Amino acid sequence: LSLASRLWDYIAVRKWPRTLQTTPAMTKRVASMDDWLLGGAKKDGTVVTTKSGRTFPTDEHDWRFFSDSVPQTLATVAAQNFRIVFFTNQRALFSGDDQSSIVQVFVSLGSLQYRKPCTGMWEHFEKYENGGISINRQCSFYVGDAAGRICSSLRGKKDHSAADRLFALNIGINFFTPEQYFLKQTHIENYILPSFSPSLSLDAKLCLFEPEYLFCHISSVFRCLFIGYAFSLLGFFP
Asked: Is residue 230 part of a domain?
């Protein structure tokens, strides 16, 4: 298990076994998914969930596949020359190794650029862990349970976040919920995303200040208050 760190952020990378032969065709299309069972730290389910029904597993044996179709679905995807990659946020996890893994697993152990919905884990995978092969994002997809879905008659409780849907959106690949991908659910559940869209703001031609003349006639010292989400690096302005 290799560990790379920047500032207070960490990413743990589980590589493919050396005996597994890969070809360029296997690395151009990526089937990426949320979560993996790591030392009993798995929380809730995209590929696996708990047998007990609890949010957190009671031990390393308290797990089951999200549905009976998961193994065959993953086998089908692998047969179609997709590379299967798991991206998961596990800030509390700092050690552990599973020699039986035959897929790539990227674990965000910190809270900055590697933590979903930030794209650090994907960028690290694409730059350093994919054999230098460019990825066809139009043919790649991400499956995750943090989809921003609201409480409804179909869903007893809302999703804990929208980080997985935003992760796919930030990367520019297709997104599916576990129900859509493994259970072939065709109904699109209602979901809520943050009202602020970085991509729209970057594309828009906006003034530096609103109104534009806000600071034009100020000659004395003034205080500027920056407001943003946690870990948005507001304190790093010069």
From this structure: no
The SS3 assignment for 14 reads strand
Residue 90: domain span? 2-195
Q: Look at residue 122 and give its three-state secondary structure.
A: helix
Q: What is the 3 state secondary structure string of 33-46?
A: EECCCCCCCCCCCC
Per-residue confidence in pLDDT tens, the chain, 238 aa: 333 333 334 455 544 443 333 333 334 566 665 643 333 333 346 777 878 877 777 777 888 888 888 888 888 887 887 778 888 776 654 444 443 334 678 888 777 788 899 999 899 888 888 878 888 888 889 999 999 999 998 888 899 899 999 999 999 999 999 999 888 999 999 999 998 877 777 777 777 777 777 666 666 777 777 777 776 767 665 5
Closest by CA to 192, choosing from 132, 150, 226, 232, is 150
CA–CA dist 101, 119 (Å, integer) = 23
Whether the ω angle into residue 198 lies within 30 degrees of 0, i.e. cis, is no
Rounded CA separation 126/27 (Å): 10
The secondary structure of residue 32, as a DSSP letter, is: E
Does 54 fall in a domain? Answer: yes
Tally the C-alpha atoms within 13 A of residue 127's C-alpha that lie toward its C-beta: 6
- Residue 206, domain member (yes or no): no
| Closest of 164, 177, 1 to residue 93, by C-alpha | 1
The total number of structural domains in the chain stands at 1
Across 152-179, b (16+ Cβ under 10 Å) vs e yields eeeeeeebebbbbbbbbbebebebbbbb
